[in-house]
Amino acid sequence: MITSEIIARKRDGGKLTRQEIEFILSGYLSGAVPDYQMSSFLMAVFIRGMDLEETENLTWCMLNSGKILELGFIPGVKVDKHSTGGVGDKVSLILAPLVACCGVTVPMVSGRGLGHTGGTLDKLESIPGFKTGLSIEEFIENLKHNQVSIMGQTKDLAPADREIYALRDVTGTVPSIPLITASILSKKLASGADALVFDVKMGSGAFMQSKETALALARNLIKVSKKAGRRSIALLTDMNEPLGNAVGNSVEVIEAIDTLKGKGPEDLLEVTLTLGSFMLILGGKANNFRKGKELILEKIENGEGLDKFKQLVLQQGGDPAVIDDYSLFPKTNYQIDVKSDEKGYVNAMDTKEIGLAAVELGAGREKLDSDVDLDVGIFIRKKIGDPVKKNEELAKILANDFEKGKKAEQRIKKAFRITRQKAKRLKKVLSLVDEKGVRELPTG
Ligand code: URA
User: Fold this and answer.
1) Active-site positions?
2) Options 1.10.3720.10, 3.30.70.330, 1.20.970.10, 3.40.50.1110; which CATH number does 3-49 get?
3) Ligand 1 within 6 A of 85 CB?
């Protein structure tokens, strides 16, 4: 087989066989296919797409690039959740310990920041000492003792995703349904989870901006999971404004800890409770949506979720003292207030621009080998529907480089749309998608 011919066939809209996909992926991992050819292949897939069979084959090839964990010796249904990527989405940090203390084991394999969206691994690594590059043995030990562990793709687990994810991040090839499906599922199927909950984000800060494309992604994730013998559901959630108020790495960890202490923002809590409730249903610990939410809320109120988070930090080498003393996170050099030029109501936000402002500050990667600044970030002070006075603060920027801070300020200012008429607050959880179709969420 010849790599350039496979690329050209996809470029011309042809269908690839499993052997061809395998040839490109294994060649990339061994070094026989260089970055420039892989980038070109990814762009061809991005533009031409893949049908379901090709997407399944891409997923299996990425999954089989590493080991697949078998967790049958751990009692109960193992359940994981994954988001398709958003701005300010720190739900995994809150959800994983809460669900674990309700008795469902959560083997979570996560990713880093991608494009304008943040990643769970970068956020966790802002906790001094926290290690996400675990060995499979360490991951399993944590699951046995604490029912929860969060690790990244390694050379053993979904290595193809690790390499391709980093390349997609810097080649404009992220928002592709087959590439996102294979990326998420190769990690999730490798982690040993029996059932999966997908948080499919839609809106101005998501990779899928319209309901139509978000639904297509949700359906793809569910169909490929079913083929792999996993039960799954997807929730479509809003990403037309950042989730919660903090955007960055350590700032998001602090907001997640606040949420575990019962002091989190309402929208973040609502999305967490909803996703968590479905994890408990799939894990056999709740028989309806209302009961699942109640169980999770109870674990916030009685402090067990926070204790579980402390154990998670400890077991992965992090310093749990940060949980009670946020001053242990390094301070940034500058704080810049983003002020409104006019009076009115926040009507809309270009959430992708806010994510890009965070990348501009250094919270994400602009190049394959960029270092991430774990301490910079943005606090959103006004959300959609809020009234704003002239010169009132829309956001606060934490920066280590003043020039970058000023550029981020311009982006954020442009991202806010202020109008005279009041806008409605956004509903956060939009629909439930499963094998039977799309439904509104049960109320209560
Ligand atoms: N999350 C992932 O793990 N992969 C993607 O491609 C997008 C979001």
Assistant:
1) 82, 161, 168, 183, 187
2) 1.20.970.10
3) yes
- What is the pLDDT at residue 52? 96
Q: pTM of the predicted model, to two decimals?
A: 0.95
How do residues 220-272 score in pLDDT, each as one tens digit? 999 999 999 999 999 999 999 999 999 999 999 999 999 999 999 999 999 99
Distance 284 CA to ligand 1 centre (A): 27
Residues 110-163: tens digit of each pLDDT: 988 888 998 999 999 999 999 999 999 999 999 999 999 999 988 889 899 989
Which run of H or of E encompasses 380? strand 377-380
Ligand 1 atom at minimum distance from 110 CA: 3
Ligand 1 centroid to residue 9 C-alpha, Å: 25
Residue 345 Cα to ligand 1 middle (Å)? 33
Contact 417, 348 (CB under 8 A): yes
CB-ligand 1 contact for 111 (6 Å cutoff): yes
Residue 367: what residue type? K
> Ligand 1 center to residue 190 CA distance, Å?
15
Q: Tokens for 192, please give them.
A: 């040993």
- Residue range 331-419, CATH number: 3.90.1170.30
Q: What does the block give as tokens for 142?
A: 């944590």
**Pocket lining: 173 vs ligand 1, CB cutoff 6 Å:** no
CA distance 425 to 297: 23
Minimum-distance ligand 1 atom for the alpha carbon of 84:
8
pLDDT tens-digit series, residues 360-397 = 999 987 766 678 999 999 999 999 999 999 999 999 99
Burial 297-336 (b: 16+ CB within 10 A, else e): bebbeeebbbebbbbbbebbebeeebbeeeeebeebeeeb
pLDDT digits (tens, 9 = 90+) for 176-230: 999 999 999 999 999 999 999 999 999 999 999 999 999 999 999 999 999 999 9
Minimal-distance CA residue to ligand 1 atom 1: 84
pLDDT at 21 over 90: yes
The number of CA neighbours under 13 Å toward the Cβ of 103 is 11
